[in-house]
Amino acid sequence: DEHQQYHHQGGRRGQVEGGRGGPTGQPPAQQWVNRPGYAPGGTYSRPPTGQGVGPSRTEAGESSGTVGYGRGVGGGAARGGSGKAWVTAPVPDQPPRAPEPLPDVTPDVESLKISEQPRPSPLLGSTDKNLLPLKRPDKGGRNAIGKTNLLVNHFPVKFNPEATIIHYDVDIKPKVPPKGRSGKIPKSDLRMIRGNLFSDASTQFPLSKTAYDGEKNIFSAVELPTGQFTVEYSHGEDMKSRSYIVTIKLVNVLKLCKLKDYFSGNLLSMPRDILQGMDVVMKEIPFRHRVSVGRGFYPKEWYEEDDLGGGIAASRGIQHSLKPTSQGLALCLDYSVLAFRKPLPVLDFLEEHIRGFSRSGDFRRLRRDVMNALEGLKVTVNHRITKQKFSIAGLTEQNTQHLSFDVEDPEGKIPPKKVRLVDYFREKYGKEIMYKDIPCLDLGKNNRKNDVPMEFCILVEGQRYPKENLDRDAARELKGMSMALPKDRKNRICEMLQAKDGPCGGDTIQNFDMPVVKNMATVAGRVLEPPKLKLRDSKGKMIVSSVDKDKCQWNLAGKSVLEGKPVERWALLDFSSSDRCKLIPNNFIQNLKKHCKNLGIHMDDPLVRRFTKMSDFKDVTELHQFLEHVIEEANEKGKGRLQIIVCVITKTDPVFDYLKWISETQIGILTQCCLSTTANKGNPADFVNLAIKINAKLGGSNVELNEWLPRFKSGGHVMFVGADV
Where is the Piwi domain (predicted)? Predict the structure, then answer.
């Protein structure tokens, strides 16, 4: 319907109210924790009963929405800004007080009566007149200038209230515990062992009528035999199989009629055990056919159009969970995009990932880069048939042609014999090693040697690549994929719902009598009236600006800020001086001053200009000394302390995090960052954005609301805290 708008709860809301959530990039991991000058603020409120299970937020580049429920963050005793914080004064230690004796009162039991008056609620029924229910400031949801129909990424689940789900506990242990190492079984092996049991006795254990969470729980639509079962499992044809004891115990019979009673209001508490079982059923097919990373499921293969370069590809996956909503049970499904290493042969991956890498080149020059790229990754081998996965511990010190090891006789009749690795692979596997002038991969663990030539190793699928390590173009492309247009996002979500490897694939949910409606749920949204802003025109006269109805945004062109703070003492630090995209300083300064003047902000020339590069600073001490010298020079030239330091960089760098931390929390001078490529383009919008950021940091006021918000008409200082929860 053309009159319906798809409103994804992670998308751009504009002036439409109707959900929450959003694809937000996670900030890079801070290498400095417990920074001085910051105090924790805010309180956490637990979501109401009925929040549901499963994902409610996303990993970098991900999103997941909910309907009807949320979590709030309240204000706390902390204040950001210049790094100052309000903290509670410590209470001095007091000597312990002896407990007061209890009064010797023994009431007559027969005289005790049950009061006929109900006990008042702690809040709503309290006699304290100061405690009143909080009224909605929007007239109970009637404040609106229009309504619109919204589609949300929730799909109604029509379960059969007469059906039952049988919950079993499953315990898998080796029949013979391994000696000298941990007996913990990897999750991937647990699923394979369960699969072997169900395939060997398919009549007793129908695979399509069961769901396994990969650990201790099996949920079944039919009764399963209980007890102990022996299962044989081997990682490969040339490896000895091992015996495992699988113990299955009945835990509970989950009646779905309780879930119906909950939605009809006859049951006060949500039956979480039922919702957990149904959620595992919904994830059974994706678990079998996709790669599980966090709470998302991603395809094992990659596509050419998703190639990010450098051996990295974007993977479009799904995140889904069951949610109880005001409209009943719903499957919340969203699509997620993450960067993964391609499942390529190791040598092919290195050629794409490391510039200048060659199989026949000088390996010693790039050894450190190869180590950084491969260490800790998982690989499989193709010189023999096996399902086993190995972790890369490192590289051998010698090249392949010089490696040798001792072969021991299993019966101990023949003394150990030293064999060259090249000869061993030729005689044992019939494989001729082509690249003998490069090291092997060290795949050993528990002090056991296992050197394998790189040409026989293949990266395992589903190995995530940190988005902060992507280059600028790849990061921009990944972000573009994750922030798809609402129409494209809706189509992708619907496609993933009905995919063969999606939650509705196969016949599992049909066997549990849990059909899913293929159309998104609809909700009514309210279009709120946008507030009017108070600012000044180009001549400095105060005016009121309204939203342009056609463009749905405030038109600030030709306007100036409400209160401009003069920028009289500032420094310019250029960290791009040795880069090919280095800053053109004179043009940058003149453009910034011009746009500040147009906005009603007076700006002088910088007191200090310094041209350097990030690589000049090896530690925090050098960076601190550098900033101190800049401040000393500025103090000699100007009257008073520096107001702000503008830093121009070519790309994000951890050194800038340290610089910002030192300058703002230890020295006490604000900073503002700018990219050299953006500065050199001279785009007016970029310079306006930079100018209003500087003005806000110095205490100026760019715009103000023309009218007070409801409940804040009494005046005073107000802080708005936004949180993605």
Answer: 644-725
| CB neighbours of residue 365 within 10 Å | 10
pLDDT digits (tens, 9 = 90+) for 532-575: 999 999 888 999 998 887 888 888 788 999 999 999 999 999 99
Give the span between the Cα atoms of 479 and 493, in whole angstroms.
17
622 falls within a domain: yes
Residue ending a domain, among 460, 488, 521, is 460
Q: Which of 405, 429, 460 is the last residue of a domain?
A: 460
Amino acid identity, position 261? D
Per the DSSP assignment, residues forming a β-bridge with 315 are 338
Q: What is the DSSP string of 84-128?
A: ----PPPPPP-PPPPPPPPP-----GGG----SSPPPPSSTT-S-
Secondary structure of 155-179 as H, E, C letters = EEECCCCCCEEEEEEEEEEECCCCC
DSSP 238-282: TS--EEEEEEEEEEEEEETHHHHHHHHTS-SS--HHHHHHHHHHH
446 and 572 co-located in one domain:
no
Q: Are 642 and 607 in contact (CB under 8 A)?
A: yes
Distance CA 300, CA 297 (A): 9
Measured at the CA of 627, the angle between CA 578 and CA 648, to 5 degrees, comes to: 40
Cα 588 to Cα 690: distance, rounded to the nearest angstrom: 11
Residue in this structure with the two tokens 């007070």, named with its chain if needed = 708
How far apart, in whole angstroms, are the C-alpha atoms of residue 347 and residue 356? 13
Beta bridge mates, 334: 319
Amino acid at position 112, single letter: L
Report yes or no on 286 lying in a domain.
Answer: no
Q: Containing H/E element for 372? A: helix 367-374
Residue 723, token pair as written in the block: 């949180």
Predicted TM-score of the model (pTM):
0.66
- Residue 623, number of CB atoms within 10 A of its CB: 20
Identify whether the C-beta of residue 674 lies closer than 8 Å to the C-beta of residue 647: yes
Into how many domains does the chain fold? 2
- Phi (first) and psi of residue 201, to 5 degrees: -130, 65
Same domain, 701 and 596: yes
Whether 543 maps to a domain, the answer reads no
Do 572 and 585 meet the contact criterion of CB atoms below 8 Å apart?
Answer: yes
Radius of gyration over every alpha carbon of the chain, rounded to an integer in angstroms = 32
**Which residues span the domain enclosing 630?**
552-705
DSSP H or E stretch at residue 218: strand 217-220
State the DSSP H helix or E strand holding residue 695, giving kind and residue range, or none if neither.
helix 684-697
Q: Give the model confidence (pLDDT) of 427-485 as tens digits.
A: 999 999 999 999 999 998 877 889 999 999 999 999 999 998 999 899 999 999 999 89
Amino acid at 360: S
For 537-597, the DSSP string reads ETTS-EEEE-EETTTTEE--TTEE-SBPPPB-SEEEEESBTTSTT---HHHHHHHHHHHHH
Phi–psi pair at 21, nearest 5 degrees? 110, 180
Place of tokens 């109805």: 549
